[in-house]
Amino acid sequence: MPAPPLLALHGVCKRFGAVEVLTDIELELHAGQVVALLGDSGAGKSTLVKVISGVAPADKGVIEWESGTVQIRRPHDARDLGIATVYQDLALCGNLDVVGNLFLGREIRRFGFLDEMEMERRTRHLLERLTRDVPDLRARVVSLSGDQRQTVAIARSLLGDPRVLLLDEPTAALGIDQANEVLDLVDELRDRGKGVLLISHNLGDVKALADRAAVLRLGRNNGFFDVNTAPQETILSSITGATENVPRRTASRDAGW
Question: Domain boundaries in the chain?
Fold first, then answer.
C-alpha cells in the first residue's frame, strides 16, 4: 500500500469578492516527488500556492498534512508544518549580502549582539549541502548571477528544514545554462526526500524533472498526468482547454496520488 501523501487538498475553494478563483481543487504531494502545477495565465496556480502557503487562506475545503486535517490561515501555520515557498520575484534584498538575506528577520544573536560568524558558518554549511558554490558569502546579492540568486532564495527557504517546497517559476528569468543549474538543484531536493510543487510554463523542464503534473484551467482541475508516460501533446491539450475535465481516475490513490 502506498505511503500517504505529505500534503493533500480536497475540494479547496478560494473567492476574491464575487469572483471564485479556485473551485473544488484536488491535489496530492508525496515525499521525494516533484509535482508540476501547470496552466495558462489566470488558471489559478499562484492563488493555489498562496492558499497552501497561508498568504490567502482557503474559503472552503480540506487540507491534510500526513493524513491529518490542518488549518493554514497564515504563513506561520505553513512554516510550522514544514512548508516553505520561493516566489517568482525571490523577495531578496539586493543591497544585503548572502548571509544577510538568509537570516533576515531571524538573525542569530549572542549576548545581545549579532553572531555574524555563526550565521556565516550555517550559510556555508547549507550551501555545501546543496552542492552549490556561491564564492563570496559577503557579496551583495545584486552582484550575483540569476542561478546564484535562485540558490540563495532556495537556501533561505531550507533554513527550517521544511519537508515541502513550493517553487513559483524558478527558471522563468534564467538562461539555459542557469536554468539547468536550478533544475539540478530541485532534483537534489527530491533525492533528499523533499516534496516539491513546481509551477512552470516550460514543458521541457517539466518532462525532464517532474514525476507528475496537475493541470489547472479556469480555477479547476483539468487533468493529472504521469509525466514519464503521458505524451506532451496530451498535457498541452489539457492546459489549453482542447481537452476539458480529464477524469480524476489518473489522480486516484491507486495510481500513487
Answer: 95-146+154-160
DSSP structural state of residue 126: H
User: What's the distance, CA 56 to chain centroid?
Assistant: 16
pLDDT in tens, 54-92: 999 999 999 999 999 999 999 999 999 999 998 877 788
The total number of residues shown for the chain amounts to 257
Distance CA 51, CA 255 (A): 25
pTM (predicted TM-score): 0.84
Terminal Cα-to-Cα distance of the chain (whole angstroms)? 12
Q: Which residues contact 156 (CB under 8 A, 6 or more apart)?
A: 101, 102
62: left (phi over 0), alpha (psi -120 to 50) or beta: beta
Helices marked H in the chain = 45-53, 75-81, 98-102, 116-129, 146-157, 176-191, 203-209, 232-240
Question: CA nearest 58: which of 17, 9, 12?
Answer: 12
Q: How far apart are CA 101 and CA 92, in angstroms?
A: 6
